[in-house]
TrEMBL record:
The keyword Ribonucleoprotein does not apply. It catalyses: L-aspartate + ATP = 4-phospho-L-aspartate + ADP. Residues 2-273 form the Aspartate/glutamate/uridylate kinase domain. GO terms for biological process: homoserine biosynthetic process; lysine biosynthetic process via diaminopimelate; threonine biosynthetic process. GO terms for molecular function: aspartate kinase activity; ATP binding. Belongs to the aspartokinase family. Keywords: Amino-acid biosynthesis, ATP-binding, Kinase, Nucleotide-binding, Transferase. InterPro entries: AceGlu_kinase-like_sf, ACT-like_dom_sf, Asp/Glu/Uridylate_kinase, Asp_kinase, AsparK_Bifunc_asparK/hSer_DH. It comes from Cruoricaptor ignavus. Its EC number is 2.7.2.4. This is Aspartokinase. The keyword Cytoplasm does not apply.
Amino acid sequence: MKVFKFGGASVKDAKAVRNVSKVLDTQGFGECLLVVSAMGKTTNALEAVVNAWAAGEDFVRKLRDSESFHLDIAEELFQVNHTIFSEIKLRFSEIFKFLSENPSASYDFAYDQVVSAGEIISSKILSAYLNDAGFYNNWLDARCVIKTDSNFREANVDWDATAKKISELEMSLPAVTQGFIASDEKDATVTLGREGSDYSAAIFAYCLDAESMTIWKDVPGVMTGDPQVFENVQLLNSISYEEAIELAYYGASVIHPKTLQPLKQKNIPFFVKSFLEPSASGTKIGLSLDNQFVESYILKQNQHLLKISTKDFSFIAEEHMSHIFRLLAQNKINISLMQNSAISLALCLEDRFRNLEELISELRKDYKVDLVKDVSLFTVRHFSPGDLEKFYEGKDVLIEQSSPSALQIVFR
């Protein structure tokens, strides 16, 4: 069987939903599991609902806007008496009830209960549309089979429990399910981290021993750079798991960092293809013998540069590093680049959970801390040493780091 993952752009409106059936026409739909993301920018919209609720502001208008967005799409796809309309209204009614009745719920818990609705609704709409279009399928609630801990907003998969649940699943294929969402041991809804739908697809592929996994995107495949940011980028036809993992580690947005390990463990081929040109070859990721070591570019924005030193100018020793990393982990702050000298530690950080100020407050009890906000991290894979100067042009470089395979520059 095959696992197909359709991201938010591939189901962003009624036209896009119809296009999914065209993709399936070219690919076959028999033994297939479809994993779908929330529609378009729904996750951002539902995040805004949670943020308004947490700030004590009017969240209802934002919630109604998101409901109207989905109902408008449904009106283009279905007859007026279709059951999908009551399904959509029910989901938004449940969100309203939850937020109204749980004013003191923790932010992370509330976030997962609200934002997860995006995937539930999009998968309901896609499943219903495909059934009406003759692509008969079953709807599967991913929360019933993907089990995790209770680390809300970035839960860790319980692989043994998940594999057991999926092995017991009497699933009639084809089926449509959700990315990004799962449940903990108490059956509370959790999410797997932003852009986690790719990871969900890999979990299913691993546990079902899939013959392949394909992610359908609005680009031809894995490129040497984001075509919206860089000029003259090219398609990478074939890369190894290892190269893809490196690209994901450095921040290539086309691949979720956690996606590749489950696939590599069972040597499941992984394709990145365009839903606009489904017959095109795209990129194959696997045990590649013809890996393309082509100069590639990755830009990570919305980063922060933190410089930490001891107050008495003593060395940054192991006990200091251990303390600093523990605080980073507690505040769920990711390190994009690290550089240390004898008396200082420079960290380029990604603050997805907005805990940076709390981290700095803790660090300043023991260290001298300097912060430069809103910097960018530019990474070049497989760079040519003779071309180094062009990468520095027009940049106020704060720190740089290079290895034989990658050049990294933090700039503003």
